[in-house]
Amino acid sequence: MRIILSYIKVYKGSAVIALLLMLLELVVELLQPLIMGIIIDRGVLRQDLSAVAGWGGLLLGLSLLAFIAGITNSFFAANVSQGVARDVREAMFKRIQYFIPAQLQKFSLSTLLTRMTSDVTQLQSLLFMAMRIMLRAPLFILFGLVMAIIVEPSLATVLLLAVPLLLGCMVIVMVKGVKRFRSVQTNLDQVNHRLRENLFNMRLVKAYDRGEFEQKQFEEANGPLQVANTKALRLMETTMPMIMFGMNMSLIAILWVGSYQLNGGGTQPGEVVSVLNYGMRIMFSFGVFSFLIMLFSRGRASISRIVSILEEYEGNDRNQDGSSYQSGAVAFNHVSFNYPTRSAYPALEDISFTVPRGKMLGILGETGSGKTTLAQLIPRLYQPVRGTISFGGIDSQDIRVEDLREKIGVVPQEAHLFSGTIRENLLWGNKEATMEDLIQSTKDAGIYEFIKELPDGFETTIGQKGVNFSGGQKQRICIARALMKRPDILVLDDSTSALDAKTESDILNKLTDLPYTVFIIAQKISSVKEADQLLLLHEGKMQGVGNHKELLASNEFYQTLYQSQQKKGEVHYVENS
Amino acid sequence: MSRTPKSHPHSRIGQKPPKINDLKATLKKVWKYVDRQRNLFILVMVMVLISSALSLVGPYVLGVTVDRVIEKVETTTLIQLFVGLAAIYIFQMVTLILQNYWMIGISQHTVYTMRNHLFAHLQKLSLSYFQKQQHGELMSRLTNDMENVSRTLNSSIIQFTTSILTLVGTIGMMVWLSPVLTLLTLTIVPILIVGMKWITKRTSVYFKDQQKHLGDLNGYIEESLSGHAIIKLFSREKETIVQFNEKNEQLKTAGYWAQTYTGFIPKLMNMLNNVSFAIIVGAGGYLAVQGSISVGVIVTFTTYSRQFTRPLNDLANQFNMILSAVAGAERVFQVMDEEPEKTEKKEDRLQAVKGDVRFESVSFAYETNQATLKGITLHANPGETVALVGPTGAGKTTIISLLLRFYDPDSGRVLIDGKDTKQVKRESLREQMAVVLQDSFLFEKSIRENIRYGRLGATDEEVEQAARDANAHSFIRKLPDGYDTVLQSSGSSISQGQRQLLSIARAMIKDPAILVLDEATSSIDTLTEMKINDALKKLMKGRTSFVIAHRLHTIYQADQIIVLQNGSIIERGNHDELVAQNGFYRGLVDVQFGQQAVD
After folding, report:
1. Which residues form the ABC transporter domain (chain B) (predicted)?
2. Cβ–Cβ < 8 Å for B477, B447
C-alpha cells in the first residue's frame, strides 16, 4: 500500500485540488436541506415571497457552483488517476523486464498480463473515485448528522441513534459479502481454467473423445460457481432493503417526535422538513457507501496483486557496476544449481570444466540431465547456488551483465521470434548491422537462400511467435540472429533439432571455422563428435569430459551412448514444420 | 421510501458499448434461457410492480403526513398515518427482498446453464473452428463476455423495469399533485439530454482510442513477456521499456480524456438534481405562499424529483451496461451458433475392429480453393505400420486428421474394417485409436490423472504399468510427489522429453487397435529415445500404426512407406524397395540422413 502512496505523491497538487473541489460540492449539498427549511419557515409559513425568491435563488446559485467545482474536479482527478496508472504500469513493466527467469515463472504470463492491465485499471478507477465520491459519502453522513443537530437537536436524536446502528449493520454484512465474493472469484478462476485447458488441448480431447468427460469436469467446477455466486449476491441484495426499511422507520420517528415538538411549540415546521430531508439524503448515501465498499475491496485485491510485483526483489540482474568482459577461457568451478521452486532437487551438481578460447564444447546427456540449465548459467540467466563461473579469469558475478550478454550469443531450444520483419529480428543482434552483415550471418546460418527466395526478402513480416515459418526456418533465423552479434561465445541449446542432418552439419562446420568459443547441446553424438571436448551429464552430475576418442576409450557412460546411436536404428531427424 | 441505487453512476467507467448486430435475436435467445423458469420470473415481475407502486405511494403518504403534522391534527389521525406509512415500508421491503432473491436464483441458474451449453457445444465443434479462432479472443468470449451477461442479468432486468415503472409513475404522480411544479421540474430534461449528447459524443471517440491503445499495449506486453529470456540475452531491456513507455503514454492520454469527460456525467446529473431541488423548493415555496399547494407537496416533490432523475440516470447507465452485455451475449451465441461437426443421420457404432484401414481416392481441402490431399489411396492390413514421409506441407498431418475424423474427406472414402468412417459415430471410431501428438498436450492435473486420461476406468496399478511400459515410471518415482505431482502448464516441473513420455504412457493405457503417432522431432535424448523406441515397438505390435515419421529408425521398420508430396502419394513401398527405385525417396533419404542410411 505504501508503495502505491508514493506513486500518488507525485500528483499531490492535483489530488489536493480535486479533494478541495469535492469538499466544495459537499458543502453545497449539506446546505440544501437547511435552506429548504428556511424557505418553509421564513417564506412559505410567513407568506413572504421575497424570502422564497432570495433563498431559492441562492439554492440555484449554489447548484451551479457545485457543478463548476465538479467539472473542474474531473480534470484533476483524471490527471491523478491516469498519471498514477501510467507510472505504475511503467514501473511494473520495468521490474518485470529485469526479472530473473525464476521470478517470471513464479507468476505466469497470463497473470502478469492481467495485473498490468485490468488490475491497474481497477486501481485507476479506485483513485478516480477516491477523489470524487469516496470521502463524500462518509463525510456526508457525518456532516449530515451534524447539520441535523444544528437545525434541531431533539429531532436529530432519532438520526443519531438510527444511522450508526444501520450503518454498522450494513458494513458488517458488506464485509462478509466481500469475503463471499472472493470465494466466488476462486470458483470463477476454476471454471475459466477448465475452459482454457480444454481449448488448448482440443486436439487431444477430440482424439481421445473425452468431450463428455470434459463436460462433466466442467460442470463440476461450474456448479459451485453458481452456488457461491447466488449466495454472495443474495446476502448483499437482501440486506439493503432491510437497511432502507430501518431508515424509513426512522423517518416516521422524526415525524412522530416532530409532531410532539410542534405541539409544544419548540420546533418550526421547516425544521422538521429540513431534518427529514437530511435523513433521506443520508439514506441515499448508504447506497453509495455500499458501492464504495465493493469498489474498495476489489481495488484492494488489485492493489495487492500489483504491489506483489513491485515488491519483487530486483534479482541480481541489474548489476551495473561490474568490470567489463574479458575474452578468454570459460571455466566452471564446482558449480551447483537448483531451481528456487525445486530446491530439494539439484539440477546441477559440482560441475567443473574449462573451455579455452575459440574451442568447442559439446554437451550430451539425457532429457532432464541439466543440459539446458547449464546453458542458461552461461549468460547468467540464472546464477550458480555454489561454485563460480568465470570468463577470462573474471568471476561472472563481477562482470556487468549487459557486457557479458553482449559477448554471448545464445540460440535457445525454443525458437522465439518477435513480430516485425526478418530484418528487424536480426538487428536484435546488432543494431548497426549493414546489409552485408545480414547476408553473412544468414548465410552462415544456412537460411540466406530461403530468405532470398521470399517475395519480400529480409522485409518479410514474421507473424506473432513466427507462425508463418517452419520450425527449422525459425531455428536458423534464430541462429543468424545470434551470429549477428559477432559474439565471443556461442551457446546452441539443441537448436538444430528441426534441421536435417546435412543442413545441420553444414551449419556446424561453418561455426567451427568462426573464432567463437562454442557450447553446443545436442542429442546426437554425430552432431558434436568433432567438438574439442565433450561434457557428459546424467541427472545433473558430470559423467566425464574429454574428446570423442578419449571418452570412447575410457568412459563407460559414453560407450553405452555411442553404441545406442550406432545401431542400425540410429536416430535421425527429418526436417519438420 | 425508495430503493437504493445498485450501481452508482460512477461504476460505469467502462467503454462505450460495442456494436450489436441483431439485438432482437440475441435478446430472444437470452430470454429462452430465462424462460425456463417462467413462473418464478412472473413472480419477480409482480414483485417489481408492487415495489415500484409502493415507492410512489410512500413519498406521497409521507408528504401528507408532514402536512398533517404541521397542521397539528389529532394524534389518532397521525397514528393512523404512521401505521399506514409503516405498512407501506414493510411491504416495500418484503417485495424488494423477494424480487432480488428470486431474480438472483434465476439469473445464476441461467448463466450456469448457458455456460454448460456453451462448453458442451465447444466439444462438438470441428477442429477447424479452433484453428480459425484466435485463442485469446475465444477465451475472452467464454470468460469476460459470459461474466458480463451474468452480472447484467443479476441486476439489470429488475432495475431496468423498476426504472421505467418509477419514471412513468413518478411523472404521473407529480402531474396529479401539481401540474405547474411538474412542468418546472421537467425543464431540466432538455438540459440533461443536450448535456449527455455533448458528453457522449466526446467520450465515444476517446473510449475507442483507449481500447485501441490498450489492445496495443496488451499485445506488446504479451510478446515481450513470452520473449523475456531473448530480450535479456540480447540486452534489449532498455529498448523494450522505451517502446513500452511510448505505448503507455498514448494509452494514458486517451484514458485521461475518456475519464475526464465521463466524469462530467455524474456531475451533470448532480447539478440537475440540485437545480431541480432549488426549483421545487423555490417555486414550490412560491406556490405554497399562494396557497395552491401544501408544504407536504414540496416534501413529496423533492423525493419524487430524485426518484425521477435517478431512473433517468440509471436508465442511461443500465442501457450501456445492458447493451454491452447483449453484445457479449451475442458473441457467446455466435459460438453456440457455429455448426457442430457434421454427423450423418444413421451412424453405427464401430465395434472392436481388427484395424484394416483403407483410403479410397480421398481428396480434401482446408480452404475450398486449395486441395491439401489429392486422390489418396492406401491400404493398411491389421497390425501393419504405415510411415508417412514427405516434406512439410505434403499432407501427412491431414491424412491422420482424416483417419481420426477430425475432418471428413471432400471426396473418396476412409474405411476401417470396410466401414466408411463417415457412417460411424466419431466416439466409437476414436475409441479404437490412440494418438501420440507432437505437442504433448497435458493437463494441469496430477501425472496419474494425465495418464488415466487414456482410459478413464484404469486402476492405479494399470496407470503405473503403462508408465513402466513407456519408461516413464523411473522419473515419475523420483519426483517429490510421484504420481501425484501436479503438472504445470508452463514452468519446469518436468522436461519436454518427460512430457512426451507421459503422453506415450497415456496412449499405452488405452490399448487401441489403431495407433496414430506424430513423432516428435526433438527434445528426447538418445537414451530415452531408445527406451521409447522399445516401448513403441511393444505398443505398435499387433496394432495398425500410422506414423508421421521423422526418424529413420521408424521408417526402416515400417511395413509400408508412403511418400507424399504436395498432397499426392508419389512413391510407396518398404525401405529397400524405395531405395531401389532410386526416386524421390532415395533423394530424400540421401539428403536428410546421409549416404550411410542406404548402405
Report:
1. 357-591
2. no
